[in-house]
Amino acid sequence: MTVNPTEEAASAPGAQPGALPDAPPGARPAALEARDLSVVYPGSRGRAPARAVDGVNLRIGQGEIVALIGESGCGKSTLARALVGLVKPTSGQVLYQDTPLGYSAKALKQYRRHTQLVLQDPGGALNPKQNVYDAVALGPRLHGLRDGLPERVHGALARAGLRPPEEFAGRYPHELSGGQQQRVVIAGVLALDPRVIVADEPVASLDASVRGEILKLILHLRDELGLSALVVSHDLGLAWNIADRVAVMYLGRIVEQGTVEEVLLRPQHPYTKALLSVIPTGAEDWRPTLLTGEPPDPTAIPAGCRFHPRCGRWAAASEPERAEAACDRRELPVLAADGYRAACHLLHTDALTESV
User: Fold this and answer.
1) Using an 8 Å Cβ cutoff, are 289 and 272 in contact?
2) Which residues lie below 8 Å from residue 124, measured CB to CB, with a gap of 6+?
3) Which superkingdom, per the lineage (predicted)?
4) 141 and 149 in contact (C-beta within 8 Å)?
5) What is d(CA 67, CA 149) in angstroms, rounded to the nearest whole number?
6) What is 193-220 written as a DSSP string?
7) 3-state helix, strand, coil in the chain (%, to 5)
8) Phi, psi at residue 241, to the nearest 5°?
9) Are 236 and 56 in contact (CB under 8 A)?
10) Residues 34/76, Cβ–Cβ less than 8 Å
11) Nearest to 249 by CA among 229, 263, 228
């Protein structure tokens, strides 16, 4: 995979017109999928309900890494937690290998053998009173996998890059670096032999010097074990270095998705372009695009295109263009789960009656 030089050294939900309802020919079989998924948190003290996830279709193929990108508050973490069964959707479905997720205690326990969440803060995820061995063994013990437990734990530590595992097994979190703590968290996931991992900002709390090591580890696990992964991040450089496909999220919706090259080299949606514009290009005329208006508020979703109040393209549009596009009053359809799509009325004169 090509490395970006800026990285760490650098109105009703429905299928988009013209979009395929399922994966296009040649796509990998689905490992994990969200279909028309919504998560609404009830309001309190007179506040409106918060539509944190609002009609999302997202597909992670077998052996594929998908990066979910967006600002803080756009619903990425809520979607991640819904995909691993920690949050029950208000509507829609989560499917594992085309089978809808059940929400009984037994069904969720069985599901979590196969789909695991990697948290952002490894220090907070680890019990300071528990040594590395017990931290990694916790999951297998909860699932009754006690036969051959030492071999399972040591094997997971080795796959996570903590070698020799015997040297780390007796240590406690405070005796480890941030990168080593994250590897322990990943080892705890690997000890259950999952098929899918959902990593929520897996390197956000780490120093730049170790971020690349963790990203390289995730790629290695994909190649060695055939793992599928959804990596949640606000870092477009991370997406470039690790992902096969990218989904861009804004205010509870996927607004653009496609391969890394399609989305990051030829972005179509104004929001994606604004996110990419902050990466220095080295050109003399380089200027970042500053988003105006208020950050996303899931309790006050605007009419029409939910990005239009902050959209520079809409602000610069002529009156005839505004009349035709009607970004401030006409709802955009929900994007289909796969293929290259961007949800923007201003992309086409036919107002999005064909795919991008």
Assistant:
1) no
2) none
3) Bacteria
4) yes
5) 33
6) --SEEEEESTTTTS-HHHHHHHHHHHHH
7) 35, 20, 50
8) -85, -20
9) no
10) no
11) 263
CB distance 9 to 237 below 8 Å: no
Cα angle: 229, vertex 297, 33; to 5 degrees? 25
3-class secondary structure, 8: coil
Question: Exposed, middle or buried, 204 (CB in 10 Å: 0-12/13-18/19+)?
Answer: middle
Q: What is the pLDDT along the chain (356 residues), one digit of tens a residue?
A: 333 433 333 332 333 333 333 445 456 789 999 999 999 999 887 789 999 999 999 999 999 999 999 998 899 999 999 999 999 999 999 999 999 999 999 999 999 999 999 988 888 899 999 999 999 999 999 999 999 999 999 999 999 999 999 999 999 999 999 999 999 999 999 999 999 999 999 988 888 888 889 999 999 999 999 999 999 998 888 899 999 999 999 999 999 999 999 999 999 999 999 999 887 776 667 777 878 777 778 999 999 999 999 998 899 889 998 999 999 999 998 999 877 789 999 886 443 333 33
Q: Give the residue from 333, 338, 256 showing the smallest Cα distance to 60.
A: 338
Q: Could you tell me if 356 and 347 are in contact, meaning their C-beta atoms sit under 8 angstroms apart?
A: yes
- Which residues neighbour 185 within 8 Å (Cβ) at sequence distance 6 or greater? 118, 119, 122, 125, 126
Structure-token match 């996931």, residue found: 189
Residue 254 pairs with which residues in a beta bridge?
Answer: 249
What domains does the chain contain, in order, with CATH numbers?
A: 30-42+49-129+175-265 (3.40.50.300), 272-280+287-347 (no CATH)
Eight-class DSSP state of 345 = G
One-letter identity of residue 138 = L
Does residue 234 contact residue 70 with C-beta atoms inside 8 Å? Answer: yes
The CB density around residue 106, as the number of other CB atoms within 10 Å, is: 8
The residue type at 199? A
Query: Which amino acid type is present at position 322?
Result: R
Q: What pTM was computed for the model?
A: 0.87
Q: Identity (one letter) of the amino acid at 328? A: D
